[in-house]
Amino acid sequence: MPHLLILDDDDLIRDTLSEVARDSGFSVGEAASVSEALEQLTLRPPQLLLADIRVKGGDGLEVCRNASALGSEVVVMTGYSSVDYAVEAMRLGVRDFLRKPICMDRLQSILDRIASTAEHIPAEGFRGRMVGESAGIQEVYRSIARVGPTNTTVMLIGESGTGKELAAEAIHKASKRADKPYIAVNCGAISPNLMESELFGHERGSFTGADRQHKGYFEQADGGTLFLDEVTEMPLELQVKLLRVLESHEFMRVGSHKIQKCDVRVVAATNRNPEQAVRDGRLREDLYYRLAVFPLELPPLRARESDPQLLADRFLADLNEMHGTQRVFSPEVYEQLLTHNWPGNVRELRNYVQRAYVMADGDTLNAPVKRRMQIGKKPASGDCIDVPVDTTLADAERKLILATLERCAGVKKQAATLLGVSPKTLYNRLMAYAAEGYVVMPDPEPEKV
Questions:
Q1: Of 192-196, 206-210, 224-228, 315-319, which gets the smallest average pLDDT?
Q2: Residue 352: pLDDT above 80?
Q3: Which of 43, 35, 41 is CA-nearest to residue 5?
């Protein structure tokens, strides 16, 4: 059932509009002041806000601003003719105006349009390929269902391995752009020298090696959704250009003076605290506020109640189907799935299930969840490594690097952060170790969440 919030300090107007909306299949919240409206927005964001911008106790435009940020459609009701108010309201994302006395036919057409859109959203939210039934992940589904059909820019915040890419994909599938391109880009995996060309494209001959014209990700995603993962890894000078594109929907290819227009919805993601990234100078404050119009936090696996068991069953079912087996977990493993802290989140869980499947002697998987994979020429023990006093510095460094990589479930970027080195330095070390015959964990596959 779609939800309507009415902000008006006239009791008769609120009662009349509420009756019409309920007859049209809406649940209705009423507010006579700005403070009441802001409180109701927090409790239950509506699909539609009908707001008088001149009410007691504050400026109604503040409510419009907050509702628009939550993905609500905003319609202003007013008995005043003010160009300044109209301009400001449109800047905040106001969709339409209703002049008082309100034309009920126009109101009904708005309600019918909102109701028809809401019919396509499942009551439990929208999950795409995500998996989970915990309260935290259910709230994520509801947020995706709410923001998906809008053009609002979304910032996904969560630890590595929590499924930010799957959430971005779900937002795209829940949108009106679902039949248009969806392009996912990991900003941390692109060389800073090539990132501008990759995002905006380049003309032939614009730099050494540019032997043909190249369309960047913004052009490739035109009409659809562009997912910018690890956006805090983008160079600051390029963040300025990204902000300009988000504001103007225009850009230029490298080596060109011709302005290109684009219609792209951006979904960004980071495994850092974005506010801390702003304080640390890794993320421009103005870009942060432009990207985080609708911030969406993905809960870590340790906070998702019984989801580890549900996800483990799903991963095991995929392996059984792939290999034609009927393996199951032992009761002891089920208990450990709930007590383990899962620092690598869903990615670590998936790696464990694959490891336990390979290690199983029969049809029962009983490998300890906390068992550490053997890496290098000697297995690590727990969260410590053994380094005899006669060990060379090179050998000690190798043991530490390989143990940290395994601790991070194969996520090289996370391991580099813990070790305090650049990803490039870590990659070079791992390539050398692999050439010497040491076992190096491969990059994990995308996880189901």
A1: 206-210
A2: yes
A3: 41
Contacts of 346 (CB under 8 A, 6+ apart): 161, 162, 163, 301, 311, 447, 448, 449
Q: Which residue range forms the structural domain that includes residue 404?
A: 375-449
- Angle among Cα 105, 108, 109 to the nearest 5 degrees reads 90
Is 80 exceeded by the pLDDT of residue 6?
yes
H or E segment and range at residue 115: helix 104-118
> Rounded to two decimals, what is the model's pTM?
0.61
Cβ proximity of 93 and 71 under 8 Å:
no
Give the bridge partners for 312, in sequence order: none
Mark whether 147 and 93 lie in a shared domain: no
Asked if 301 and 308 count as a contact pair (C-beta separation under 8 A), the reply is yes
Of 273, 299, 325, at which residue does a domain stop?
299
**What's the pLDDT tens digit per position in 158-215?**
999 999 999 999 999 988 899 999 999 999 888 888 888 889 988 887 777 777 888 8
Sheet of 3-7, strands arranged across: 27-31, 3-7, 48-52, 73-78, 94-99
Q: Are strands 364-365 and 265-270 parallel, antiparallel or unpaired?
A: unpaired
Whether residues 401 and 426 share a domain: the answer is: yes
Domain end (from 311, 339, 365): 365
